[in-house]
Amino acid sequence: MQEIDHCIERYLSALETADRQPAEIAEARALRIQQMIATLKKSMERLKQIQAQLAQEPSVQISLIDLDARIMATGASRGLVGYNVQTAVDIRYQLIVTLEVTNSGSDRRQLAKIAKQAKDAMQVSHLEAIADRGYYHGEEAWACVDAGIVPLFSKPMTSPAKAEGRFDKEDFLFDSAAGE
Questions:
Q1: Which positions ≥6 away from 117 have C-beta within 8 Å?
Q2: 30-52: per-residue pLDDT in tens?
Q3: Regions in the chain scoring below 50 on pLDDT
Q4: What pLDDT sits at residue 79?
Q5: CA–CA separation, 44 vs 8, rounded Å?
Q6: Judging by DSSP bridges, how do beta strands 149-152 and 127-130 pair with one another?
Q7: pLDDT digits (tens, 9 = 90+) for 92-121
Q8: What is the pTM of this model?
Q9: Whole-angstrom distance, CA of residue 84 vs CA of residue 107
Q10: Where are the alpha helices (DSSP H) in the chain?
Q11: Alpha-carbon distances, residue 146 vs 70, 81, 90, 106, 155 (angstroms)
Q12: Across the strands, what pairs with 149?
């Protein structure tokens, strides 16, 4: 919006100097500048509408292309606007048994829901759900166990200590005999 304001100011300044040129050039130039200013004012109104929508949006995000899409974490410094699709695949037949499309950028709280849907779709009493470490979450693991699903995923290494050459929590042991 600031950039549009600056552009309008430059065009208004150019409009003031347009009359110093020959009449036919000045008229054509003035008309063109007025058209550009009108276009910029329309853009400014659109941005104000978006700003008002953004103020009412709890996630503080709006996609101008798809209103339900959200910024998803991509591992790079910038996110990607889109959806997060959770898919459960039968390992034996390699067929998709269920899927869920969310606008949550993280997989952390997705495993139990999709695993339960897969268990229901496959009509089995026991299920092993294999997922990558991005799904690791204690409550999700317990929700799976409570539903008769064995969650199989590795715990992510979230401490930067080891990477920075310091001791990590895995370098320490609890001595129950010493009580410490």
A1: 88, 98, 100
A2: 888 889 989 999 999 989 988 88
A3: none
A4: 67
A5: 10
A6: parallel
A7: 999 999 999 987 778 889 999 999 999 999
A8: 0.56
A9: 8
A10: 2-18, 23-56, 111-122, 138-146
A11: 31, 34, 21, 23, 20
A12: 127
In the chain, where are the structural domains located?
Answer: 2-56, 84-152
Distance from chain centroid for Cα 113:
20
Task: Give the model's pLDDT for residue 123.
Answer: 95
Distances (CA, A) of 144 to 90, 103, 114, 140: 17, 22, 10, 6
The one-letter code for the residue type at 156 is P
Report yes or no: 140 and 108 within 8 Å, Cβ to Cβ: yes
**Residues whose CB falls within 8 Å of the CB of residue 122, separated by 6 or more in sequence, listed in order:** 90, 97
**Bridge-partner residues for 89, per DSSP?**
96
Contacts of 109 (CB under 8 A, 6+ apart): 137, 139, 140
Question: Measured between alpha carbons, how far is 126 from 149 in angstroms, rounded to an integer?
Answer: 6
**Concatenated DSSP letters of 20-57:** TS-HHHHHHHHHHHHHHHHHHHHHHHHHHHHHHHHHH-
Of 175, 128, 122, residue with least CA distance to 148: 128
